[in-house]
Amino acid sequence: MSDEVFRLTPLDVRKQEFKKTMRGYDPLVVEDFRSRVADEMERIVREKLALEERLRHVEEQLREYKAREKAMNDALVAAQQLRAETREQAEREAQMILREAEADAERRLERARREVERLEGSGQQLAQKHHAYLASLRALVERQKAELEALANSEAVSFGKVAGTITPADERAREARKSSPKWIKSIVEE
Question: Residue 114: which H helix or E strand, with range?
């Protein structure tokens, strides 16, 4: 047998001619058979072409489906990678924000501590100044009182108490004692 495939087309069947012999086949029967074989071959060829076209179409769809499947798988892998990267990035950012917030809170707390210490120191200084001022004011009031009393006594002795009369200086000293502001008296009494 030859390696070549013998291809027979419907047209080959229709055009095939046979030699006529004396005792040959009935030409009408042969012609009818050739016609039916050619019709069947044409039907088979059309069916084959239709099947080949359908096969090409199905193969094309299959390629498209495979391409879509690959694209979807690639997209899924990319989405998973993106999700993982996004999660990692979000975790890194959250950690960074948390560290910054903790550092900021620590700085603010330290500033507040320093401010409290400063205010406490200022308050102590103010209290010390207040006590020192009150002490100096008491001393001043005591000195003034002593001076007024000494003045009143000396004027009384020298001008009128001996003679039994009250002088204008005595009157002024008495009035000064009476009219001393109450706050001076309260400081002196403390």
Answer: helix 27-155
Measured on CA atoms in the order 124, 130, 135, 140, is the torsion positive or negative?
positive
Residue recorded with tokens 């013998």: 6
Distance (Å, rounded) from C-alpha 157 to C-alpha 150?
Answer: 10
Instruction: Pull the structure tokens for residue 124.
Output: 């102590």
Q: How many other C-beta atoms can be found within 10 angstroms of the C-beta atom of residue 152? A: 19
Domain ranges of the chain: 10-189
What percentage of the chain has pLDDT greater than the value 90?
36
d(Cα 188, Cα 75) in Å, to the nearest integer?
93
Contact of 159 with 170, CB cutoff 8 Å: yes
Q: What is the pTM of this model?
A: 0.39
